[in-house]
Amino acid sequence: MLLTVISCLCIVPAVLSSDECSPGVMARREKVVVPQGSSLTLSCVVKHCGKNWTGNWMLENSHHEKLIESSDRYYLTNETLSANETKLFLNFRRVNQSDEGSYGCKIIWGTGHISQGHLTLVNITAAVPAGRNLLHRFLICGGVFLCLTVVLGLACCQCSRIKHQHLPGTKSTLTHKPREQPRLAPTPLPRRPIPKKRSTSPCKAPAQSERRAEVVYADISQGSLKQLGATREPAQSTVYSSVRFS
């Protein structure tokens, strides 16, 4: 029984202490690469639990270790996240090669205790020429515009092809028909002249009728008639006989 009471007395303070706020510095260990002449912002979160504290930024490199104060190259700001937490910022106006190194938050508590978070390694690279950067942007924009133009052109061609497939009569209605030329009547073949018959010629018929209507008068003498009768021989007579057998 006595041991149970003692164990309960030991567990209760531990549970109460776990619910209490524990101060500290929260920061990530990372590496940042930035070109020379660019701006940069680093941050860390301080969990102070409402206690007195003082926050600073520290630089460590192969040459020295120093605290950073606000100047024409850096400026320090902070933001209150809650009653127990505050976020610190280190802002670089323009970085150069001398700013290369490891940066971290350094907190001095009211009791004199010092806390430090994880460091962020900053590497400075050569500056990118402005003309080169502008050229890259121009090439990127031109490539995007060209791709969009090609895609839109292919889409329009595909849509028109699908419409023509679904509507086969559309092409005939939209196309202009050639103007029909007036049809000319066929020229008749030349007729051959029909030869006129002499017997049926209308021109000669009246001549024959006129010739028939003519009256010819002749003067015949008696002597000429005698001569004509003398020259003619008498016609031989034909004798018919019948033969009868008994």
TrEMBL record:
Residues 234-246 have a biased composition (Polar residues). One of its GO terms (biological process) is immune response-regulating cell surface receptor signaling pathway. Residues 23-107 form the Ig-like domain. This is Ig-like domain-containing protein. Residues 1-17 form the signal peptide. InterPro entries: BTLA (IPR039257), Ig-like_dom (IPR007110), Ig-like_dom_sf (IPR036179), Ig-like_fold (IPR013783), Ig_sub (IPR003599). Keywords: Membrane, Signal, Transmembrane, Transmembrane helix. GO terms for cellular component: plasma membrane. Coiled coil: none annotated. Gene3D superfamilies: Immunoglobulins (2.60.40.10). One of its GO terms (molecular function) is signaling receptor activity. It comes from Channa striata. The keyword Membrane applies. The chain crosses the membrane at residues 134-157. The keyword Kinase does not apply. Residues 169-211, 227-246 are annotated as: Disordered.
